Automatic annotation (TrEMBL):
Record localization: Membrane
RCK C-terminal domain segment(s): 207-291, 294-382
Domain of life per record: Bacteria
Keyword Methyltransferase: no
Protein name (Swiss-Prot/TrEMBL): SLC13 family permease
Transmembrane segments: 28-45, 57-75, 95-119, 140-161, 173-195, 400-433, 445-462, 483-503, 565-588
Length: 598
């Protein structure tokens, strides 16, 4: 064994210890491995830093920004709400609708973001229909992971596999090269979950449903402005635009409450709507030229002052504001800001916001300039002054965001731009055309994932360059030399499926990918099916909750136990292993359509 191989194996062992023990963050572990490879001379500095400018790292960062743009314009939220409405009232129908839809969403966005978005939607759906949340959340989370196999760009593992194949001279993959496999995995995954749903645990889940809904419903008033784009359009259109967490309390026309108006009636300029809306909807109104917060319009202009912002103030115990109405505070000028909304934990609120009498613990949403809040922060009547939780949804730019996503995909498919340049252009367009603010775009990027990918790519290069990959493949070759292709593919899938339970899918692909290439070369077979099957094993293995971040998100809300994932995920993983091996053999090795044929 050469010195480079010994040094590499020692660094690899140390890296695996750091990854598994999580004594430091995974991105920091990746950087420590990178530095160790340079210090020991296994790689030079150019090779070590190549990951930061690599195609996988660029695409992953761009996909995060594009996902942020889709979320900021309300597209992902609307799709999630549509799924909730289409799911009907039965458990089987909910699974049958949710899984394919979630998989489709995850094919071009980050699957953890999709899981996080669908979690409260399905939790509320389950409670409203008397279903168990735990029987819906696991199928949804599995579907989000399966959806990443529909395209090359959603899971970093496939981008790393493509990068490895290009370096090895085997040719890269197109954006839809793995789509037939992904479709088969989603179909078989859906069929399995429908047939085996009796094994899903039946627990209510810790959804915090009432608190979630109540905290996210602020009482406020909206004014339909002159020449509004909502003028003469039915109320139902506005309700759809603002999402499910929008409830009409009262409709005022000519300062008179109209009980005869409903969602099918047209809005008119000057109408005032008393509503309960989510934090995001409340923060979005100033970005919509057709509708504004009525208190802001009444006291603070149209609300389009770029310096003004929303903050939240909590009425403290013994506050002089307790028992006084919002109207009294506004006209006495004791609060040097516009009271734009109110949240109350318990109890009724007056029909008009200005008539509401304040109680201890009430949360006021204030509109004003930062300089005006300095005195308010120190006012003894307020317990605290905190930033507003909601981020504005740029819903009017939703069609533009969809067009950018479509143009990005078209540029890649037609070959007009390479995948990294197309997705980078899409990310820049999202920011330049104001679908997402630059600060929000940067926050959308999971820096840990980007740094980890940039750090583990040199690890794969070192495994190839030091000859360690060939050494390990030569050790495996005598065992599988006379085997048909299908069981060898199953071996690579299984190795990745087991290793990904302690490592990320990216690290697993980087470590086992070079071995798959070397093994394929020794067998005289193309490397593509072996590398793809390895990456698939790293992505769609559901043996434990720690193998996928999305599963960790649902662990608490669904009240799942470790054994639940093993009981349900192990048979599913075995089924998917055969599907992956069958499909890769059929696509790239000319094998028969039936798994054991020929």
């Amino acid at each position: 064994m050469a010195l480079d191989q010994i040094l590499f194996l020692l660094i690899l062992a140390g890296g695996l210890y750091l990854f598994v023990s999580e004594r430091v963050r995974i991105d920091v572990s990746a950087m420590l491995i990178l530095l160790a490879l340079v210090v020991t001379g296994v790689l030079d500095s150019d090779q070590a830093l190549s990951g930061f400018a690599s195609e996988p790292a660029i695409i992953v960062a761009a996909v995060f920004v594009i996902s942020g743009g889709l979320a900021a314009t309300g597209i992902t939220e609307h799709i999630g709400q549509w799924i909730g409405r289409a799911a009907g009232k039965s458990e089987a129908r909910a699974i049958a609708v949710t899984m394919p839809a979630v998989a489709a969403m995850a094919s071009f966005t980050h699957h953890v973001m999709v899981t996080a978005m669908m979690l409260p939607i399905l939790t509320r759906f389950a409670k409203a229909n008397g279903l168990s949340a735990s029987r819906l959340l696991m199928p949804m989370s599995f579907a989000a992971s399966l959806g990443t196999t529909l395209t090359l760009v959603s899971a970093p593992a496939f981008l790393l596999a493509d990068n490895l194949l290009e370096r090895s001279g085997s040719g890269g993959l197109d954006i839809f090269s793995i789509t037939p496999i992904g479709i088969a995995l989603v179909v078989f995954g859906l069929a399995y979950m429908l047939l085996a749903r009796w094994m899903l645990p039946k627990r209510s889940g810790k959804d915090g449903g009432d608190e979630y809904l109540r905290l996210d419903r602020y009482r406020t008033e909206l004014l339909v402005v002159k020449d509004s784009r909502w003028n003469t359009r039915p109320l139902g259109d506005l309700q759809k635009a603002l999402g499910d967490r929008f409830r009409l309390v009262a409709w005022l026309r000519d300062d008179k409450r109209r009980s005869d108006l409903g969602k099918d009636n047209p809005l008119l300029s000057g109408d005032v709507l008393v509503v309960e809306a989510s934090a995001e909807a409340l923060a979005s109104f100033h970005d919509d030229p057709g509708i504004v917060l009525a208190p802001v319009a009444r006291f603070g202009g149209r609300g389009d002052d770029k310096e003004s912002q929303l903050v939240q103030a909590v009425i403290g115990p013994g506050s002089e504001f307790i028992g006084r109405s919002i109207r009294e505070l506004e006209y006495s000028r004791q609060v040097d800001a516009v009271i734009a909304g109110l949240w109350r934990r318990d109890g009724e609120i007056a029909p008009r916001l200005s008539d509401a009498r304040l109680r201890e613990g009430d949360l006021l949403v204030l509109w004003g300039k930062p300089g005006d809040f300095a005195d308010l922060a120190a006012h003894h009547g307020f317990l605290m002054l905190v930033p507003f939780a909601g981020e504005a949804k740029r819903r009017v730019r939703a069609p533009l965001a969809l067009a950018i996503l479509g143009a990005t995909i078209a540029a890649v498919v037609t070959g007009w731009l390479s995948a990294p340049m197309a997705f980078l252009a899409g990310a820049v367009a999202m920011v330049a055309l104001r679908c997402v603010e630059i600060g929000q775009a940067y926050r959308s990027i999971d820096v840990r994932v980007y740094v980890m990918i940039a750090g583990v790519i040199p690890l794969g290069i070192a495994m190839e360059q030091s000859g360690t990959a060939k050494l390990l493949a030569d050790g495996l070759l005598p065992l599988v030399h006379d085997w048909p292709a299908l069981p060898i593919l199953l071996v690579m899938f299984t190795a990745a499926a087991l290793l990904t339970q302690i490592l990320s899918d990216s690290a697993t692909t980087v470590l086992l990918g070079p071995i798959a290439v070397a093994l394929a070369d020794s067998l005289g077979m193309p490397a593509v099916p072996f590398v793809v099957c390895t990456a698939l094993g790293a992505v769609v293995a559901f043996l434990t909750p720690i193998g996928h971040h999305g599963n960790l998100l649902i662990l608490g809300p669904g009240q799942y136990r470790f054994a639940d994932f093993l009981r349900i995920g192990a048979p599913l993983t075995i089924l998917l292993a055969f599907v992956c091996a069958w499909m890769t053999r059929w696509l790239w090795l000319g094998g028969p359509l039936l798994p054991f044929g020929g």
